[in-house]
Every structure is written in C-alpha cells, then in structure tokens.
Amino acid sequence: MAxxxxxxxxKIESAPVLRALGGDEPLPEKPVVTKSYSVRxxxxxxxxxxxxxxxxxxxxxxxxxxxxxxxxxxxGGISTATVSITNNLSxxxxxxxxxxxxxxxxxxxxxxxxxxxxxxxxxIAVAMGANGAIITVHNQFEDxxxxxxxEPDGTDILITGDGSAIFS
Length: 168
Known about the structure:
Helix content is 0%, strand content 56%. By secondary structure, the protein is mainly beta. It has a domain at 73-167: Immunoglobulin-like. Strands 5, 6, 7, 8, 9, 10 and 11 form a seven-stranded mixed beta sheet that branches. A four-stranded antiparallel beta sheet has the order 1-2-3-4, with no helix packed on it. Strand 1 (34-43) and strand 2 form a beta hairpin. The model has no long low-confidence stretch (mean pLDDT 75).
C-alpha cells in the first residue's frame, strides 16, 4: 500500500499594514507620478532639427536628452537646484525658469513661466548646465535679497546651487 502524502503547513508572515486612525481600511500608497515631455525644435534657417526630451518624477526634472544624448553643455552635465522664491511685492511675481540652459551661448532651450502670488513663497526646481542657470524676472521690484548659491544678475537671478531670493 502506498503511503499518502500530507501537505506541509507553512506559516506566512506579512509586513504590517498602515491603517487610518480609528479605521480598518489600509492607507493607500502614494503613487509616484512621472510625466514625460518632448519638444521638436526646428531651425529651418539653419537646417537644424533638435528633439529635446525629459521626464519629471514627482516634480523633479530628470533625464534631459537632446537628440537622444544627455544634455548639459559638454563637461558639466545637468544638475538641479532648489530655489525658494518669496514674493513680498504688491502684485503677483512672474518669472521664467529654464528647464535647460546652454552654457556656450547663454541661451534658454526650454522653460516655463511661473507666477507666484503676492505674499507667498514657492520652492522651484531649476535644471542647470555646467555654469548654472538664470531665472528671468518679469516684474519691476525695488529690492532682491539673495542667499545660498543664488545671486542677483541685474534684474535676473543667477543660480549655481540651492538658495533663496526675496523680492520686495
């Protein structure tokens, strides 16, 4: 007579599950948000077409490519800085933030216009080339106070690392 096989009991332990205070439902995990962008940059007078692509992961610009190659003005590569802008003006502050800055001819490749309401501070991620980046200010202001690796450049802001700028 053949011997009957019995199933082996295995105790499975799982990681603790976070639950809402006073509830039985587990808290939902915060999803990572990734956005991908691409721009076709036509220069018909020069016979040049560039494809610029990058992705933003939870608000942080990553993987900037120009024509399939990592961008950044050659030796320096692309880096990012966080700049805190405080608007103490009597009106909203309009600034142009580059997503890529060509170090060779100080030219903005792509970017975005950001409006910061009055009496508000906002952290901004800035993509920099080897020589930094420049935030262009569109408003009239009397005083700009900078700290960290942020300094005035006329009516613009030169960014070489993390820092802050206060407009009043």
